[in-house]
Amino acid sequence: MKIRPYHPDDLAVLKEITVEAFQGVSIDHGIEKEFGIINDHDWKWRKARHVEADACREPEGIFVAEWEGKIVGYISTWHDPEESIGYIPNMAFVPECRGQGMGRKLLEFALDHFRKLNLSLAKIETLEQNAIGNHLYTSLGFKEIVKQVHFVAPLSTSSTDEN
């Protein structure tokens, strides 16, 4: 596996990989299961936009994994030098490359990137049902700090008129 910097022409492929990889482990997917499609946009559209946001925020913090010249995964990072924290918002691989240690290598690459920036901490989030991610992150030294619960409330007037 080769790890290289992100190029803007990678974006479409990264979005496709992300949507496939986050099926069942995305907050947006959970929202759609509860409330349906929002404003004519499904959870896949919203999740793909997260990758666009990563590319706008800090494109030099995105690293692309290639195998035999084909993009097979990526990790996105950004950092806040004043906080001295590096953030990892997204990481995804195509199905045939999961479970082969590539995610570990990409995470180690991102952690080295943060060390070169002289940051103190790296932060990553995952859902409870992501058993593979939970195991991988703790094996690399991440410690669970707190569990977070996401609440969503519909904002239509009919849902608040029941008083």
Automatic annotation (TrEMBL):
Broadest EC class assigned to this enzyme: transferase
What EC identifiers does the entry list? 2.3.1.189
Question: Entry's Pfam families?
Answer: Acetyltransf_1
Which GO molecular-function terms appear in the entry?
mycothiol synthase activity
Q: Which CDD domains match?
A: NAT_SF
Instruction: Give the N-acetyltransferase domain ranges.
Output: 1-162
Q: Which InterPro entries match?
A: Acyl_CoA_acyltransferase (IPR016181), Bact_Acetyltransf (IPR050832), GNAT_dom (IPR000182)
Keywords from UniProt, A to Z, are: Acyltransferase, Transferase
What is the name of the protein in this document? Mycothiol acetyltransferase
Per the UniProt record, the source organism is Gimesia aquarii
Task: Please name the taxonomic classification of the source.
Answer: Bacteria, Pseudomonadati, Planctomycetota, Planctomycetia, Planctomycetales
